[in-house]
Input
Amino acid sequence: MNIIVCVKHVPETAEAEIKINPEGTAIEKTGLVFDINEWDDYALEEAVQIKEKFGGSVTAITVGPEDADSTLRKCLARGADNAIRLTDPKFNGSDSYAIAKILHKAIKDLPFDIVLTGALAGDDGYTAVGPILAEHLEVPHATMIKKIELSGDTARVNRELEGGLEEVVEIKLPAVLSIQTGINEPRYVSIMGIRKAMQKETKILGLADLGLSENEVGEAGSWITIEKVYVPPVEKQAEFLKGSAEDIATKIAELLKARGLV
Output
């Protein structure tokens, strides 16, 4: 079972103070800590578990700068066999559609039974790379995957729907599956895994290597162009009530009555 996992090197912004760059088109990334995209973390773990059960290989691939090597090394340390970084200044500004085209060029000639992606990108919130990549590869796809059961050339998958519902789908392989968080428990990186990862090389491919033109990538090859990014203004603030239990209860009752809730 040959599995390709598409991963993304993203900034951790949950507890960071976000600033917008001078151009107003992206966040200021200087000083931010980068790591593997959360959803891709689960996709990688699922790929390694499938390999451990059925044999085969796992290839981690990313579109990103040289700094993204740290994410690829993490993938290698956790069980991936190969790593590929797609890097070129012309890739800057690529949206989901352009990223999928870049990944397609790198993946189409590789042997694969399953291509796994994260269901969501933590930095831009896009969810489109998996389905678009599947269309380029001309293979079936399914998104928001919470469970995978493999039998021969068929995958039986559970898809997360709204309201806590799940949909069970059978899909023929090869296929592209977009993984939702919670499908597994990503393992820690072991010291032995780190040592093995340091001995493996990362294959680096650029625009020319992939046979793409400048008009097919970056803003020129994208469907979406970001014109402005801003931090949402604070419109409401929490009010903390102080005093005795009786005083707080009275204030709560007054607030509910003033707002027409009782």
